[in-house]
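Request: Give me one sample?
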Amino acid sequence: MPEDITKWFFIVNPNAGSRKGVRDWPKISRLINESGISYETVLTTHRGHAIDLSAECIKNGYRRIAVVGGDGTLNEVLNGIFTQKVADPKEILLGMIPVGTGNDWCRSFNIPFDYKKALEVLRNGKTFIQDVGKVIHYHHDKPETRYFMNVAGLGYDALVAKKTNVLKEKGRGGTFTYFYFVFASLFQYNFMEAVIEVDGEMVFKGEIFSMNVGICKFNGGGMKQVPFAIPDDGLLDVTLIKKAPKYIVIQHARKLYDGSLVDLPIVKTFRGKQIRIRSTGSIYLETDGESLGHTPFTFDIIPLGIRTVVG
């Protein structure tokens, strides 16, 4: 048990940001020591490790967890917080030092990418209580549950994330890689037939290209695909891109970054507390950049589910 309840537990992903985590950790740890923050630290060794580490540190009495990594590491820590049974998740304070390739959650909360400035945010301790998303998906025909605090993507978005993650695991991923696959994967992707329900009402039936379910606005390294999302309004925001000629994606690529994508006639937006999706074939999913299973999906909102340190 930590003697000081204000002590931080740093979970460091050395593979974050194409191994930037391991390269920059000596510099970050020096800055932490200079900041006067009381802390312990542990490095992850494999995918999913941060889930176990966060649950274990809560069991050992820590109530402040800081992630040194990217959106995927943050997602794992969130899932460790929500699957452990020792403490109410709202008792946990979650902070972040961004070292990943996208760092999209940080974009919504003004957390600097500069390590020293990010540590100042952590030390200042300004908090925000945000919603958390929960999705039930299927893996080998068995239901699994995943929590997320930024954006979930399915269809084409999930395909791009999966291809990017394969290279990330080899230390070659990055924002440019993601952007490359946004275009390179177009010609091998097949549109999928789906039925979408929002709060029990069918809002769409037909072929879809891609879809995002958001708590926050940004994903894909700065893309604003869910521009209307408000992280503490108790609602899930949905951006759906319907079937359309694939050249339109190339033609309107800049609209992915300024949020004006939603003005196109091929795009529909919805908002609700529960989103249910079923399909004739398997549509795949990613949450906060982590590749997961396939349809059917049930998304639910956990209002004001986690306390975070923000800029």
